[in-house]
Amino acid sequence: MYVRTVGADTLTFGVSGDLWKDALVMYDRETNSRWSSVTGKAIVGPLKGQELTVYPATQTTWRAWQAAYPHTRVLKKPLLSRSVYAAYNADSTRLGIHGRQLVKSALPAKSKVIGFSLAGQAYALPLAALAAGRLYHLQVAGRQLVVAVDLAAEGVAVWRLVGADDSPLELLPGEIHLARTAAGAVVSLTSGLTTAGRPVLERIISIKAYWFGWHNFYPETEIIRP
Amino acid sequence: MPNNPRIQNVTRISIVNYKLMNVRSAGRIMLTGIGLLFIFWPRLSAGQTIDGEPIYHVLPMDAIPAIYHPEFVPAEQAAKFMDPAEQVIGVIGPAGTVVAYSTWYLDSHEIVNDLVDGLPLAVAW
Fold first, then answer.
1. Per residue in A84-94, pLDDT tens?
2. Coil, helix or strand for A152?
3. Contact residues on chain A for B64, CB-CB shorter than 8 A
4. B38 versus A78: which is more confidently predicted?
5. What ipTM, to 2 d.p.?
6. Which residue of B has its CA nearest to A215?
7. pTM exceeding the 0.95 threshold for the entire prediction
8. CB–CB of A132/A120 below 8 Å?
């Protein structure tokens, strides 16, 4: 999710039909520049080098989102039974459209990872190493991270704990988007704020990706196995 | 957005997915989307190289139609087209407006150009 502005100008994005590093390339209708949908950076055209601001978003199931936000609105669409990529997603041998080869791979090429960067180093958390219904506290690059897992939707959010006295957090029983601090405050795992509006968690940009796709962008990734 | 404390404080996440386009699906999307009776065989012509990786031209521009004028319904009217297990990207606008986008649907469109609480957002899936 990006804020689609550069300076004072609003951009409108379309699908270029191009792929770069096996991933979608967007174009903006205002300048016809090409943008990587993965990095949010313009790679070709008048806006080359510009970078879009990432906006916070949550990946989850419709059931969980509607329960958390009954007043949500939802994009109108036809009734669908599954993703059009279901066959591709299920086939562990198909890597992008060129059939990319990944040699000496630390993880199965088509396994899913949660990728993020901290202090210039890229990290990947294998989704298969995470269990549902719990929070992970990790020490990474000197920072105290909290990883929240919503496995029903393969939604994983990486947070940095900013209220040191609140460590550790634990999930409220039966909840996937609400946690409790040691002092008893309830924290939303979609906003990072307590019910009183105090910031306890700060989100770290993270991306769910196939390992081979993440590896295309960040070959020097360190793999974290919590 | 530097003067929006909500954005600064809360987060920066991208749920861009690298669920990579596949040729056959893309062909199918064209057929359903445009209703034309032809099979599109993409030309895998490599163009300009950036950071040592070529940009491949796979489909014509806009062959996968981004959403430029999204329409919404309230959650209580969505039961007829949303499956409870359907995956969504959820977002909370700077003034608290809550929006969900089905990723099953985004697979056929990839991008939504939206305006949430006056903030221009691009959902890139």
1. 666 667 676 66
2. helix
3. 15, 17
4. A78
5. 0.73
6. B18
7. no
8. no
> Distance from CA of residue B34 to its chain's centroid?
18
Kindly report which listed range (A73-77, A164-168, B8-12) carries the lowest average pLDDT score.
Answer: B8-12
Counting Cβ atoms within 10 Å, is residue B50 exposed (0-12), middle (13-18) or buried (19+)?
middle
Torsions phi, psi of A167, nearest 5? -80, 140
- Chain B's closest residue to A64, CA to CA, is B84
pLDDT at A179 over 70: yes
Which sign, positive or negative, has the C-alpha torsion B121, A118, A108, A41? Answer: positive
Tell me how far the alpha carbon of residue A105 is from its chain's centroid.
22
Give contacts of B83 with chain A, Cβ < 8 Å.
Answer: 62, 80-81
Distance (Å, whole) CA A10 – CA A28: 10
Measured between alpha carbons, how far is residue A71 from residues A190, A217, B99 in Å?
15, 38, 9
Question: What are the start-end ranges of the H helices in chain A?
Answer: 62-68, 86-90, 211-217
